[in-house]
Design a protein that fits this description.
Helices cover 38% and strands 14% of the residues. It contains eleven helices and nine strands. It has helices at 20-37, 62-73, 94-102, 118-125, 141-155, 173-184, 213-219, 241-248, 252-257, 277-280, 287-305, and strands at 51-56, 77-82, 108-113, 129-135, 162-166, 188-192, 208-210, 222-225, 262-264. The strands form two sheets. The chain has a five-stranded parallel beta sheet with strand order 7-6-5-8-9, with helices on both faces. Helix 2 links the parallel strand 1 and strand 2 (77-82). Helix 1 crosses helix 11 (287-305) and helix 5 packs across helix 11. The chain is globular. The model has no long low-confidence stretch (mean pLDDT 92).
């Protein structure tokens, strides 16, 4: 991509707002940050004068730690907000919370919330740059960006890849951002899982639907398994975890039967449900690469939304 490309976004609310060129530009900047992370001292002062608030209304480990580490590696002042230990527990609204935080002269907000559209609401409420770290079952753009970055790292491209996303499609924000981003970059996507874990109108996602895991594994270049949300087990969406694993879990035998697909998972992995342990730990798995690449991608997003164009 040309070095004079103009990145004109102030927020990262979802990949629906980004063109293929925008996505490619973020990934190209992530290349540079991955190079920095591999240095003996993986720190740069590019956000030294910025104050960033991590506003997490939902539990998170990987995403929150990845953002926080990215911010600190870039020299930002970081404030972590947890709703359970804040005035939210006393009844304070999101609008009042974010306006009070903004009055402390912040520059950026990373927000995760259980309600779809929260990041857009925050962007309309305050003047800071907003990064969506997951809003309900809507979008999780940085996860999709790191997934595409990892695919490009593995295969040298995203265009033309055959990707199957397996599991709880109906409730996943990861799958929506991935479908949007992958299709914009020219990949072919199939979603696979039980009918009860599909959205009401899966055709609206613009992808093929399958309920045959082994046919998908034979077809695909990348098999991305999604976490089965244990909290939904009581809703009767499938008979049991054992039956789910039997029909839709990737097993050791699949590695022998279908020797060409690569394994991904956004984490955390329920071993013995989405993936057998031997699969998660196999040489075909690039799950840990996703974690490392997530740091580089989030550094790139933070840098670009802070006003940077290149490093």
């Amino acid at each position: 991509m040309s070095t004079d490309y103009e990145f004109n976004h102030r927020h990262l609310l979802g990949l629906a707002d980004y063109s293929a060129q925008d996505i490619q530009y973020v990934l190209s900047q992530a290349d540079r940050f991955l190079e920095i992370l591999n240095r003996p001292v993986p720190k740069i002062p590019t956000l030294r004068d910025k104050t960033i608030v991590n506003l997490f209304y939902e539990n998170s480990t990987r995403t929150r730690l990845s953002f926080e580490l990215a911010q600190k590696r870039m020299g930002a002042d970081v404030v972590n907000f947890s709703s359970s230990s804040s005035s939210v527990s006393k009844g304070e609204s999101l609008k009042d919370t974010i306006r009070n935080i903004e009055s402390m002269k912040i520059d950026m907000v990373v927000v995760r919330h259980s309600s779809p559209g929260t990041a857009h609401f925050v962007a309309r409420t305050v003047n800071a740059a907003i990064l969506n770290a997951g809003d309900g079952a809507h979008e999780h753009p940085t996860q999709a960006l790191l997934d595409m970055f990892t695919m490009r790292q593995k295969f040298g491209k995203v265009a033309g890849l055959k990707v199957v996303i397996i599991g709880d499609i109906a409730h996943s924000r990861v799958v929506r951002s991935n479908i949007i981003g992958l299709r914009k970059l020219g990949a072919e996507v199939i979603i696979c899982g039980p009918k009860t874990l599909m959205p009401p109108s899966p055709d609206e996602l613009g992808v093929t639907v399958s309920h045959d895991l082994e046919a998908c594994l034979e077809w695909c270049d990348v098999a991305m398994a999604l976490r089965i949300q244990m909290e939904r087990q009581g809703q009767g969406l499938f008979p049991s975890l054992r039956e789910y694993h039997e029909r839709f879990g990737i097993k050791k035998r699949h590695l022998k039967e279908f020797p060409n697909f690569t394994i991904m998972h956004p984490g955390p992995v329920n071993r013995g449900v989405e993936l057998e342990s031997e699969v998660a730990d196999s040489e075909r798995s690039i799950i840990l690469n996703q974690v490392t690449n997530g740091l580089a991608v989030r550094m790139a997003a933070l840098y670009l939304l802070s006003g940077g164009q290149r490093i």
